[in-house]
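Justification of computing resources. Each target in the renewal requires a structure prediction run like the one illustrated here; the chain below, 113 residues long, is used simply to show the kind of job we budget for.
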Amino acid sequence: QVQLVESGGGLLKPGGSLRLSCKVSGFTVRRDAMSWYRQAPGEEREWVGRIDRDGTTWFQGSVDRRFTISRDNVKNMVYLQMNNLIPEDTAVYYCNSAVLRPWGQGTRVTVSS
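Resulting structure tokens:
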């Protein structure tokens, strides 16, 4: 059974850092490109970044050089390291594969002074 479980969100001040985790069940992360998405209040869900099967990462411009994505093939997990957070990063964050699976519950990140 496919399941995506995001965790690690929280409330923090601008400039802070946070690492989100995505635990995957039902398929193998190293065999698929994995993306992070986010949905800000009142907005559509948007793509944040992706890690390809070969480990190459890609990010949308607003988070490039602040966020990184990594993968643990043994634990079958994907991570989103977020640095230098700004209020515009406030959102619920989700992970998913290139071929979209059922969405998890997401994890909420709030950046506020």
